[in-house]
Please model this.
Amino acid sequence: MAFEWQIFCQDIIDRTPVAGCFGTGGAKGTQTYLDWLIAAWGQTVLVAGLSLVVALLVGAIIGIFRTLPDSPWLSRFANAWVELFRNIPLLVQIFLWYHVMPVLIPVFADTPKLLLVVFGLGFFTSARIAEQVRAGVQALPRGQRYAGMAMGFTTVQYYRYVLLPMAFRIIIPPLTSESMNIFKNSSVAFAVSITELTFYAQQVGEETSRGIEVYMAVTALYIVSAFAINRIMAFIEKRVRVPGFVANVGAGGH
Model:
């Protein structure tokens, strides 16, 4: 079976070949399937990147709440957060944010739909990151917490200057996996018509009847993106590694 890669050089309206494979753009210009593919890749990167920022910020806060020694109500809230967002399927959460939240909370009716998907994906992943932050803090030797307290640090201070810098170093490997997963999970955005890679693959595959070529191109972009994330996180891990430090798993945190 011969592959027809030239479909990516065709105009998306009249299917005529475009020299150079890139359209002229603009309101009256041309757009090829390659242009659309790159735009869809950009949408995927945008959704995944914003969702990762939300997941890291919220996940870190919730994870910290779960390890606070004298704040039972914050711990209960954090536990409830993790159980709620971890036990509802991601696709269901995306539909809830996209269709239900704008009805229940009117302010979300004017929120860009892409941001609603970002909230859904970000909060879903935050529950997983919160577990990793909790595990990272609890993996530290109990003496580190006591040392911070002995120096007169407040709870905020010994978390900021003693526990969290080491805890985040410990959890970089699982954070790498979550960063790669959030990029792949962004594919659920197609269900609410966000024009990311999976939406592109379905739409263009139907229009051109060349699904094999289209899905191969999309798969290649997913692989390249995930590998790039892996290498970036590996570089960060190498840069922040503390030589000779080995966490005493289960030793401290409470």
Remarks:
- Residues 247-254 have pLDDT under 50 and may be disordered.
- The two ends are 62 Å apart (CA to CA).
